[in-house]
Amino acid sequence: MPEAENLIALEIYFQRTELLVTFLLALLGIAFGNLTIKGVGFGSSGVLIAAMVAGYFFQFEPVAILANLGIVLFLLCVGLEAGPSFFRAFKQHGRRYIANVLVLLAVSGVNTVAIIALTGVPIGIGLGLFAGSFTSSPALISALQFSPEDEVIFGYGVAYPFGLLGVILFISISVRVLRDKVAAELSERSHLHSAVFKLENDDLHGQLIRDAEVLKRHDVVVSGILRDLSVRGASGSTVLQRGDLLRVEGIPENVASAGAEIGEEVQETFDENSELDTRSIVVENISVVNRSLHDLGIRLRFNATLTRIIRANIEFVPVEDQPLAYGDVVVAVGTPYQLDQLEIFLGHKHHTVQPRVDIGSLAAILFLAFAIGGVVVPMPGLGQFSLGIAGGALVAGLIFGHFGRIGNFIGRFPRNATAVLKELGLALFFVQVGLETGQSFVESLGFEAVYYALYAILFAVVPMAASFLVGHYMLRIPISECFGVICGGMTFTPGLDVIRKVDASERPIVAYSSVYPVALILVIALVQGMHLALVSLSPPV
């Protein structure tokens, strides 16, 4: 066969590279972490699990520089995101919330140190158990700076599922036991209600909305008017006309009373034939941060309505006394022109972030991070103390995030950009750590893991119970808000789903969002403090 003799054999060689393995495991881990059962899943820890499995079966070699890069990117972005609200949080109306978080973390620190010291659990495993019981990635990264990686990851892996279930069960059981009291608290609240009425009162025809006594007397507002088959905004200078369909908002009984004087209630929606648009706007103007919606007068200034606020990936309905926080995403309804003006007001480029990541500024922040992390402070009796690259990155991020600009260097980048950098850093770090500890984790599993699981439950439940008792009975925080504070203090978002089943209002979410940035930083510092305490309590070798 002459043709066959002329054929050229084609062989394909495939060379495995560290980067190929890293991003393949990141992809698989993210897919696994996104799997949820009733809203609960492993999240970003799925990357760590995937890497540990690969490390056990294939013994891939980790790349240390990728782990360090991941740590720096993650904590730097944590600092940048928390910086604008971290220091201001102590001055806001949520001081009770902050005090309750401090109780939560203080009790947690004492409880964790006591159990580790009394039971003789290795420090690295103990700190890993704490991070796993709080399901906290920042706590895990902080613990890895001071203790052997295999010990910390082993403790984290054992404790994570028990911490996840322990927190959910504690909140579920507590809410069920206290359901009568929760119901009583909910019944005392005033919920806003909206209804549509056809204007039939001749006395109101031709009046300006701001002059309508019926609206003032019953403390309601008109949020929209359907006239000539088109929806238009309702400002104080809008003239009412007979036959208008008015969307009235307020307390249910007030809406009913006002509606009886306005005219007949109709079942009409304003969604069709509307001239109004809906737009999501990021709050980036420093001059509006920490000011309430009532103080800003958004409805009067722009004739636009805010329908919800998204903060720390949590969505809730705004109320008039709700202060805005830097980075909030507000969903507003109004005409295109009104929304354009509102967007300039809430996020004007001269008051806010760069429209892209400024590489020069990022390099400056990284330089500051490594400079701070390289400072060594001698501590009598404890040896030398240093923040390391992790602590340096966190402090540098907080400084730049708080001030926004230092000289010509920008410290506030687009929210999406910092979120991507943070998730990328966490994935890079988890892949390398998982590859290094996968083998040792399986080999370390033994009967003592049962005791470690019990300790993990105690690490989570004891501070939660103490925080609830102090928060509710001493600081007088309502039950659902108290659990919102606890979930925020533990940076544990799935717990909110349990609370929302009994309280669907914005209050637990606001409580969670108010303390989340503070807790994110304090839990990292807490791990460092516990490590120092445990080292000082350890007998000399």
From TrEMBL:
Domain RCK C-terminal: 180-264, 265-348
One Pfam family recorded for the sequence: TrkA_C
Matches recorded under InterPro entries: AAE_transporter, RCK_C, RCK_C_sf, YidE_YbjL
Membrane-traversing stretches: 12-32, 64-87, 99-132, 152-171, 359-379, 385-404, 416-435, 450-470, 509-534
Membrane topology: Multi-pass membrane protein
Subcellular location per the Swiss-Prot or TrEMBL entry: Cell membrane
Domain of life of the native organism: Bacteria
Keyword Transport attributed: yes
Listed Gene3D superfamilies: Regulator of K+ conductance, C-terminal domain
Predominant localisation class: membrane
Keywords, ordered alphabetically: Cell membrane, Membrane, Transmembrane, Transmembrane helix, Transport
Family indicated by similarity: Belongs to the AAE transporter (TC 2.A.81) family.
PANTHER family: K(+)_H(+) ANTIPORTER SUBUNIT KHTT, TRANSPORT PROTEIN YIDE-RELATED
Protein's name according to its UniProt entry: Aspartate:alanine exchanger family transporter
Organism from which the protein derives: Fodinicurvata halophila
